[in-house]
Amino acid sequence: MKNVWVLSSLALATLTATAAAQPGAPYPQPAPYPQPYPQPTSQPAPYPQPQPQPVYPQPAPYPQPQPQPVYPQPAPYPQPQPQPGYPQAQPPGYAQPPQNVQQPAPVENRGHHGWTIGLGIGAGSISDGTNSQGATTGHFFIGGWISPRTAISFDGFSHVLTADGATRGGNNASTVFSVYGVGVQHFVGPRFWLGGSVGAGLVTTESAQSETVLGLTARGGYNLFESGPHAFSISADLTAGFFEPDSVVGVGVSIGYQLM
């Protein structure tokens, strides 16, 4: 193996020396570089043009909704009106709101105005402290209202009897005990009223004996029936005349009429 390597080296050296001894010998030309592949002279096939898409028919538009006819609204049901004087009932669990319940006006606040007149007749008795006897009683008055419930009037009350020795003197003569004066009447309730007067008290007999002293009356009554300005009442009255030596007192119950 060593010999082969030596022989190869010698052969190479010999060739080299021989080549160098030959003058003008050209150096070997290197092999030319390989030429690039020839370019094709034909034009590349054009890219296929996109085919036009077929025109499909457009779908028909959806029909538009037609406006609904406007029907007239039904009239609302009438709400129940609250009864006057009674509060509305509320469902359970809810507080009842305050309500302004209109109360009917009391009867006693009715407006009396203008003038008034009245009269009455009844039965009673008179007494002078010694004798007492039944008598027929009567009264009348005329005046005017100074407020819706109060009137001032001129009053006259009389007790008439015919009896033996009934009062003052013991004669067989008719006796009339009367009180005339200025009175007042006041309604303390829808139909209940009180009144009184002060004036002159007289006792008159058929023998023309007459005295005039201080006289007082007190009365109270109740209107049994009223229709507009007309009223029919029942009343009780007390009259007194301060005579000497004995006073005369009369009491009576009357049915009366008053134009209010």
Elements, N to C (H/E)? HEEEEEEEE
Rg from alpha-carbon coordinates: 72 Å
What oligomerization state is this entry in?
single chain
- What would CATH call the architecture of the domain at 117-222 and 235-254? Beta Barrel
Mean pLDDT: 79
Residues in helix, %: under 10%
Tell me the number of strands.
Answer: 8
Main pleated sheet: 8 strands, antiparallel, barrel
Question: Can you identify the CATH class of the domain at 117-222 and 235-254?
Answer: Mainly Beta
* Structural class estimated from helices and strands: mainly beta
What do these coordinates show?
The chain is rod-shaped, with a radius of gyration of 72 Å. It has a domain at 117-222 and 235-254: Porin, CATH 2.40.160. Strand 4 (174-187) and strand 5 form a beta hairpin. It starts with a helix and ends with a strand. With 260 residues, it is mainly beta. Mean pLDDT is 79; it is low at 164-169. The protein contains one helix and eight strands, in the order αββββββββ. It has one helix spanning 2-21; strands spanning 115-127, 132-147, 150-162, 174-187, 192-205, 210-227, 230-241, 248-259. An eight-stranded antiparallel beta barrel has the order 1-2-3-4-5-6-7-8. Helices cover 8% and strands 43% of the residues. The relative contact order is 0.13.
